[in-house]
Amino acid sequence: MRDYILLTGMVLQAQPIGEYDKRMVILTKERGKITAFARGARRQNSRLMAGTNPFSFGMFKVYEGKAYNLIEVDINQYFEELRNDFDAACMGMYFLEYANYYTRENNDEKEMLKLLYQSLRAITVPSIVNELVRYIFEIKAMVVNGEFPGIPENRTISEGTRHTINYIVLSSIEKLYTFTVSQEVLSEIKLMSDYYRMKYIDKHFNSLEILEKCMLKN
């Protein structure tokens, strides 16, 4: 009899395999980032169909063979709001790709999973500007992964921006999305976040390219 494992996590990526199967990347609390196969998930009557799409968050029952194999899902958050809003979906897909880049298998990724979940929730809150959500997510992800370099001494920014970045760095994830900023501070945080990403992250995000095209249209 196989030993099953219950994992709490979110689907970062899913792609078709063969005629009816799916290959998924799931960020989990217990095992970090894993690759799992869902047999028959693309069949019309499959109980796995809805829970094997990106953004699905909940419990995943798997067994370990040569790879993880998905047996059951119990999803408590599909983030359907993102599926119905193209701009929000673009932002959300960028967050998923970013998390996929930063996380590893068998690594402690609890904080990154929490950050991803709270950031996707923040996108659905009308009172928070999505652009600000993005910059908070980018900066805090570097902090969570121990790669935030601090504010460079040669960068001239306003005191408001300096205070905001320090708050993002020091605040708990649960309290990240509880404030708004002026347009001036938002513009400066964008410059700082872009600076950190281009200088310290060796990755081209396809989803970011799409996201920025969406932002230019708005």
Characterise this structure.
33% of the residues are buried. This protein has two domains: 4-77, Nucleic acid-binding proteins (OB fold (Dihydrolipoamide Acetyltransferase, E2P)), CATH 2.40.50; 80-217, de novo design (two linked rop proteins). A five-stranded mixed barrel has the order 1-2-3-5-4. It has helices spanning 80-83, 86-102, 110-123, 130-144, 159-170, 183-200, 206-217, and strands at residues 4-17, 21-28, 32-38, 57-64, 68-77. It has seven helices and five strands. With 218 residues, the protein is an alpha+beta fold.
Please identify the top-level CATH class of the largest domain.
Answer: Mainly Alpha
Question: From N to C, what is the helix and strand string?
Answer: EEEEEHHHHHHH
Q: Within the CATH hierarchy, at the fold level, what is the topology of the largest domain?
A: de novo design (two linked rop proteins)
Please report which band the strand proportion falls in: under 5%, 5-15%, 15-25%, 25-35%, 35-45% or over 45%.
Answer: 15-25%
What is the distance, rounded to the nearest whole angstrom, between the alpha carbons of the first and last residues?
Answer: 55 Å
Uncertain residue segments: none
- Annotation field: number of helices: 7
Q: Can you count the beta strands?
A: 5
What count of domains describes the coordinates?
A: 2
Overall structural class, as computed from helix and strand content, comes to: alpha+beta
